[in-house]
């Protein structure tokens, strides 16, 4: 009785100091009850019993039943919540409420997670020392998965700073190393147009074969663009931009073309694709991934040439695929010389760029090798040299009407006469090859 009396005596002075809190809690209960009775925050989402799986196309279902899902995972179960977490939560709650006002099927589940290095430490502690191989395997898988993802959602204490070994050399990656970043398989599939709700089907290997049938016997063309067809005999290499994302489009049932997206849109109205004005993209591929590929060059003195990187190629110019004639183009000559000098940097094999340059056109001033002279006289040592446009202009200005062909079917004729003849010969050659295949 003495204890009860003491408590009553102590509680009396503080009885009125919780009035505001008690009012707030009482109000909370009232509206929680009202929300529950009105089912305000409940979503009558469709289930597979209502709409059987596969009975309607995913796009049509999303249009018929627009949906929204937002969540905020409980920040960390091994930590303490604070006011800023409610601020983050309010953003998701507002977005969900707005989606409901739009008559969308809105879901706002609360998630829980506790990931990061703290869990890895727990996993390490639970690795048994006995002969329980299954537990060891599970713990090792968990540890490797967390390490591979290299991320943690648990915050570092504010007074803790990362330790850096100042005696250890560190440097940023070079340009080529940054070109390609690892992607998950699901990300790659999304990038080529596979809907999210169909990705799980590819767990079945037979689904792969049905979706991506074998293309043996099909031809892939690197669709190079040129304004100077008379130099086509001197194709020694083919250039692509290593950092450019190219698209592979279907030209016919057994033919595909590699080209930039802008180039494909332009060529869609030139009778290149199966249907006028329509391009069907099959895949994306980074330019760096096709470097070293051997291709057939029509009318070239070299029957087979290699794809090499050229950092000055622009995706918005032409098709993004450039024919390389180093005997006639200062740009091409400077790039080839640079590739041979810095093969390890690009990276390529040095012998790919070390190839004989074939004379195609002869001029009174520069002889049969036009490009090397202005490049060497202006002491241009890089394909990014600001003097290259001047060298290019000087080489081309040598005289369209005074140049003479020294190779090919039209040897001895003026370039001005041979230009259209070579163009027609190129078209005829490609047409015959297509018919033969």
UniProtKB/TrEMBL annotation:
The keyword Cytoplasm does not apply. Keywords: Aminoacyl-tRNA synthetase, ATP-binding, Ligase, Nucleotide-binding, Protein biosynthesis. Residues 61-160 form the Aminoacyl-tRNA synthetase class Ia domain. GO terms for molecular function: aminoacyl-tRNA deacylase activity; ATP binding; leucine-tRNA ligase activity. Its EC number is 6.1.1.4. It is an enzyme of class 6 (ligase). GO terms for biological process: leucyl-tRNA aminoacylation. It catalyses: tRNA(Leu) + L-leucine + ATP = L-leucyl-tRNA(Leu) + AMP + diphosphate. InterPro entries: aa-tRNA-synth_Ia, Leu-tRNA-synth_Ia_arc/euk, Rossmann-like_a/b/a_fold, Val/Leu/Ile-tRNA-synth_edit. PANTHER family: LEUCINE--TRNA LIGASE, CYTOPLASMIC, LEUCYL-TRNA SYNTHETASE. Belongs to the class-I aminoacyl-tRNA synthetase family. This is leucine--tRNA ligase.
